[in-house]
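Internal tracking record. Fields below are filled automatically when a chain is submitted to the structure queue. Please do not edit lines marked as system-generated. If the sequence contains nonstandard residues, flag them in the REMARKS field before resubmitting.
Queue: standard
Priority: normal
Entity type: single polypeptide chain
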Amino acid sequence: MFRRASLLLAILAGAHGCASRPATPDRAASPRILLSTTEIYAHKLPAAQTPPARLYRPLPLNEGMGLLASLPPRDIVVAGAKFEVTVDPPAADDRIVLLYDRIDGAGLRYGATVVRHRARDVPLPVFAEEARRWTEERFGKHAPIPGSFAHFTPTWREWRSLIESGGILALVPPNRSRNDFDPKLIEQAHAAGKAGVVCRAPLDRWPASFVQIEILRADVTPHAWSSFESFCETRRLLSARFDAAISTLRIGEWLRETARQVTASDSAGWVLLPGAAFGDGREWWGTRRPRLTVHEGIDLRFLSVGGERKELAAGAVVTAVADGEVVRVFKDFIGQTVVVRHRTGVEGGSIYTVYAHAAPRPDRTAPYPVKRGERIAEVAASATGAPSHLHFTVLYAPDWLPVSRLDWDTVNPNFVPVMLLDPLQGIAPGRDSYQKQER
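SYSTEM-GENERATED OUTPUT FOLLOWS
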């Protein structure tokens, strides 16, 4: 939603010639720890005694080099469209950098999927958007399961188990065996656990790719650990419970009701342009600039009425999707954001719906209870480059997170405790609910 700079990702990678020469992991002067086979190297850099958990995200880069990193802004290195390689990143406190080196010459990859060949000069945002669309068309959208994680030390067997479960970025091609790897590299992969490197992966329902990983210290509480057999089973069970909780919101009905309400037509439905859907990587207005994070929800701006496209006007009524409690109101870059908590029976937390770029009711002050269909705001007039529209987000947040922390610094894909959910999950497109259209 916002073009924010929080948790910026360093872009340090290179052309094919550099990518074909992986760094030597056992150099005496290097603090590298090999996490998995010949394709993953970790630079474990100086850290404070009790650092915060840092979020790492896989980045697909030119000619097969990839990177996961979370760095402060002063350490960002962008070397142009070709991303010249930096083998040893500049020193910084509290970080681990993973370099993902594909040396088979098979072209750019997103997870284990070849997306484009001979793509040396493709800018990273363009490639990331192409990769996201390519994978979603074939596998569907990423669907995290709130509040549940698998903790593990990254040996080659455990990486492969995660790949076969379909729940995390494919770091090792699943058709390889232990015999395909240098024994010395495997030995160092196992040594990563002894060095105190621990990974935490959110349980999700999406096969490979586009998954967030945290690198933690070894001081994880014992109850947080799970075997990979229970990892798969827990994910399956939580998926069913999570689907049931979201279904109680009846978002599809709310979309139909709001479309009819603002148009006074029984045949009205919402139209989502490229960039307006959950997970989209670009804005839908103006020059369609890349977003700094993927889209956190859906943007409701256009409607189809009798085959004609209409625009949502400022002042249109915004209603609550389900019974709940308005718990927070705060400013955003167009108007204000209204947060409603719904008690849906999800253990350890709550489902929230978020209505942004709005003008909240002046006669009510949070917190206050609301009923399904009750007016909570109006669409705000916009004085920015973005047209007036209603941004709608659905998320899970744990009970320990104060509602005062729910703002656009935490309601984004880079804040692990808050799980963003696709509002359209399980809702079939149709003329009286929503349609996805090209521009």
